[in-house]
Amino acid sequence: MKPLNVIGKGVRRVDGAEKVTGKALFSDDLFLPGMLCGKALHSAYSHAEIVRLDTEKARALPGVRAVLTARDVKNNKCYHRTGDTWVLADGEVRYIGDIVAIVAADDERTAERALGLIEVEYRPKEPVAQLQEADTGARLVRDDKPDNVAMPLVVTRGDVEADFARADVVVSGKYVFPSLHQVHLEPNSATAVYELGKLTVYCASQVWFHTRHELAKITGVPEKDVVVRTMQIGGAFGARNEQITPILAALLAVACRRPVKLTNTRLEEFLATRPSVGMEIEVSIAADREGNLLSKKSRLLTDFGAFSSDSDAVTAIASMRADTNYHFRSTHVEAHGLYTNRTPTSSYRGFGNPQMHFAQESLLDELAEKLAMDPTELRLKNFIRPGETSIHGFQISSCGLEACMEKAKELIGWEEKRRNPTPGKGIGVAALVHANSSRAGAPEFSGSSAMVRVDSVGRVTAYVGESEIGQGICTVVAQIVAEEFGVDPQEVYVVMGDTDLAPFSTGTNGSKLTTNIGNSVLFACRDAKEQILTVLRERLGMGPVAIEDGKVVGENGGEPLMTLPEAMEKVSYRLSGRPVIGFGSFEPHTVTGDRTGYGHLAPTYPFGVQMAEVTVAENGNFTIDRIVSVHDVGRVVNTQMALGQIYGGVMQAVGFTTLEDLAPNEHGVYAANTLLEYKAPTVWEMPEILGTFVETNDPFGPYGAKGIGEPPIIAVAPAVANAIYNACGVRFREIPITPVRIRQKKLEQQRVRAGEKKEDGL
User: Fold this and answer.
1) How many Å apart are CA 498 and CA 379, to the nearest integer?
2) What is the DSSP string of 590-611?
3) Of 439, 309, 452, 386, whose CA–CA distance to 607 is shortest?
4) Which CATH number characterizes residue 575's domain?
5) Exactly one of 388, 710, 748, 756 is catalytic; which is it?
6) Nearest to 669 by CA among 33, 71, 44
7) Global pTM?
């Protein structure tokens, strides 16, 4: 790899000082003159007909400026690309939290009083609250969707039945992965301003241009007159991909002709925003006696909730992407995305990969046990390698899986601990794969774009169409600009979060930013540099020159000729005062496959291996002592931030592996709907985390880099489950894993053994 000056270093975050000093402004920090308070009335039933809806008393309350219901929203059913989601409940409600009406008032107290004056008469219907119940189709969530099926998916690659017939060993299991809440620190908030025919919305969004499009569709304001400005974002993890809050605020602002702010309570975050897709996964894996994987069969039931959204993409990813770790001769997957009377589900960090990896990597350990093989050796024997193509058509340009496994084994002391186990202690392993910059079957532009502006004093500003959600993309952009121009990253200005200023992009998701926006910024920098050098060569007669370390130098070496600011002063004179603006865009160079959208899905694929070490007491209490997390993310752009992604991702995964549970009941109501009941991890649950990297050089990433945002969350759950089995002989096929459940499983084992002894006459 070429030596670099800034890339690969632990550069301080360019936005860090504002955040730690409190100068950063989040959505709820915005206050405008004449601003009204918006509030939403949520359904108290998971499934019911709206018999009567009377808003007259609320409208008559002094200080109330608007009360809107479905009949007041002209394009009420245009929310989200799937087109099956309403903004406000129309004729019935389909989940607890479904929005029946919205109000705008002079202050919060008046808005709350207005909600209490809205009279709603419901005729309750029996809800469909469980996946198995939805799968029968005996009762429907909605009349227009027979059998409750939102998304049927069947994919077969190779001769599955023949491979299972010739297998020496087959293992099977059913795995349950519940819906999870993203638990981002900042509740959703939006402020909308409608003035002189122009709508401006301030919010926390991962997909500004998508949000702008939806605002135009639903409000009727032409898209050219809609501006979305993103404030600082207090965490996302997929939750800012789809949010109704900006739309509600915009509808009220258009109705009132005054600024309106609408901020969710924490309860509303649990009831009315979109948690992850819960899944039940049946998996079978076939292998020969030598441990060569032959085939895999899967059946998935995925919980869409009351409406379809990104849950269809999550289902597709869960169905197939985990297969890419290994050489399967064939595979078959059948997935049913099902409607239920629960909160609609959507994207969550990992986008379906944690769900399937939990099933697949847990079952591989069972296969290793049947074959009397070390679980690491089984995986090493079957890992995909660089230059190969996966069973689904993914072309692997770089892959460090083998090196990740060897490093993880060394860090945790695998060989010694397997040879000389300690009672009550166990170690477990799981491998992972993700994708960067996937097209996901979209035929339209699926990439990113960037502009780089260099002014007359040599100041460099990058304009990007992505969001900073805490992952550090501002700093990555600044590092790339700094590397190309030889300036200090802290002196690079990064502009994002404004649809009027930034070039078009498809949003912040899918661990795509390092590849997508990184390449776009890199190309924009080189475009700008070439423009500058062309003026110096052709208009100023300087001959062959280059820009290095913030200076103009001869291409053949020698002393610097001038600084970048000095050069830009001369260039600006020759360009009649205009700045130099470079443009770059990156479109994934991939080919979509069949109707599933799978073929060569993404330009780059990060890989990794995660291991867990646990201690389990006789009473079922356990601790996760250590997590080893080794990742191939190409060339690491910022070592400090990349390690931060590992620490954060691992802790998030420890949370849902051992604690987090929305606990929906038979009525579709979440028992855990506050941070008191929904147990997110704290510092007390943090294990020792050993994070590190195996650097490869991916030809499609900027400087050889791949993404790190989502991989650290993917394989922790199966690694912990496998470690617990290694420690105490109890297998888990459902999370969260808790001491109570360990005790229950131990008691079940004791009863089974007692029954076997009785049958044997002992």
Assistant:
1) 46
2) -B--STTS-SB--SB--EEEEE
3) 386
4) 3.30.365.10
5) 710
6) 44
7) 0.94
Residues 519 and 427 in one domain: no
- What are 46-89's pLDDT values in tens digits? 999 999 999 999 999 999 999 999 999 988 886 665 567 899 99
| Number of separate domains in the chain | 3
Q: Does a structural domain hold residue 151? A: no
Please answer whether residues 182 and 209 qualify as being in contact, where contact means their C-beta atoms are separated by less than 8 angstroms: no
Domain boundary among 567, 586, 605: 586
Active site residue 466: no
Q: Are 736 and 685 in contact (CB under 8 A)?
A: no
* C-alpha pair distances (Å), 216 with each of 221, 250, 335: 5, 10, 34
C-alpha distances in Å from residue 317, one per residue of 298, 339, 441, 446, 621: 13, 18, 11, 17, 34
- β-pair type (460-464, 448-454): antiparallel
Q: Do 413 and 469 belong to one domain?
A: no
Q: For 711-721, what is the mean pLDDT? A: 97
Asked if 575 and 615 sit in the same domain, the reply is: no
Three-state DSSP string of 694-723: CCCCCCCCHHHECCCCCHHHCCHHHHHHHH
Q: What is the pLDDT of residue 441?
A: 44
User: Omega of the bond prior to 736 within 30 degrees of 0, cis?
Assistant: yes
Q: State pLDDT tens for residues 584-630.
A: 988 877 766 555 556 777 889 999 999 999 999 999 999 999 999 99
- Same domain (yes/no): 395, 461: no
Instruction: Find the domain containing 458 and state its range.
Output: 16-22+447-586
- CATH code of the domain covering residue 81: 3.90.1170.50
- The answer as to whether 673 is a domain residue is yes
HEC states along 467-513? CCCCCCHHHHHHHHHHHHHCCCHHHCEEECCECCCCCCCCCCCCCCH
Q: Which pLDDT value is given to residue 294?
A: 98
Ordered alpha helix ranges (H), 329-374:
353-371
Do 629 and 705 belong together in one domain? yes
Tokens coding 246: 């900006």
Tokens representing residue 536 in the block: 């110096």
